[in-house]
Design brief:
By secondary structure, the protein is mostly helical. Helices cover 66% and strands 3% of the residues. It is built from ten helices and two strands, in the order αααββααααααα. Pfam families: FCD, GntR.
């Protein structure tokens, strides 16, 4: 008797794609490809319903998906509707913060990320900075000087100094990384007594050395000085017992 072999490669269940996802995919591709630039209004829900043949509910759900992704914003009122917008510089910050909290990312891991990123940002800033970038970076450094006696203000302005440096490197992805981890670093290190005034003065001195290299257009020096700065930062928190010793 002839036996019938069973299929060794079963397909498994096939999940149907929802119509709202198809519309969201199509609109997302148009936005990301530049076919629908930032600031341009999308067709109204009624128009999209007529164009696609989808239900009003499916169209509304698709627009909600794009809004949750930060690709459109919905405006109310007589001239309201959905308008295309590019992701903001801090678009990575919230998901990275949630990831860090959920995974229990340590201060040591945050510092390791800084070691990997910040010297490259300083190096690129020295190569790519514009006169406007230098003005912003010098101003950020001067504000740090003024805030030396006030620890909370100093730490907040210290984060803004990094933003100014990241702006000068003209790499949007690196800037997004800095913005996404800056809040984590600030939250992890802003407890009372962790950054006394002598430490703040050392931070300011390190920043000025980096700025001098960026102004001079000396990329290797900017990288070296930032590497030393981050190494000093790590040593400081090792002494406080907040990170393990190497």
């Amino acid at each position: 008797m002839k036996t019938v072999e069973t299929n060794p490669n079963p397909l498994g269940p096939i999940k149907a794609v929802r119509s709202r996802d198809l519309l969201a995919d199509a609109l997302r591709e148009q936005i990301l490809s530049g076919a629908r630039p930032s600031g341009v209004a999308l067709p109204s829900e009624r128009e999209l319903t007529e164009e696609t043949g989808l239900s009003r509910a499916a169209v509304r759900d698709a627009l909600r998906v794009l809004e949750s992704e930060g690709l459109i914003e919905t405006r109310q009122g007589r001239y309201g509707g959905s308008v295309v917008k590019l992701p903001a510089n801090d678009a990575l910050a919230r998901p990275v913060a949630l990831f860090a909290r959920a995974r229990g990312i340590s201060l040591q891991e945050m510092i390791e990320a800084r070691v990997a990123i910040e010297p490259t940002i300083a190096e690129l800033a020295a190569l790519r900075r514009t006169p406007e970038d230098l003005q912003a970076l010098i101003q950020a450094t001067d504000l740090l000087q003024e805030a030396l006696p006030r620890v909370e203000q100093f730490l907040d302005l210290n984060v803004r100094w990094y933003f100014a440096l990241a702006d000068a490197c003209h790499n949007d992805l690196l800037r997004a990384f800095i913005v996404s981890i800056a809040g984590l670093i600030l939250a992890a290190t802003s407890r009372e007594g962790q950054t006394p005034e002598p430490t703040r003065r050392l931070i300011l001195q390190s920043h000025r050395r980096v700025v001098d290299a960026v102004i001079a257009g000396d990329a290797p020096a900017a990288r070296r000085r930032m590497e030393r700065h981050v190494a000093g930062y790590q040593e400081h928190y090792e002494r406080l017992g907040l990170t393990p010793s190497a």
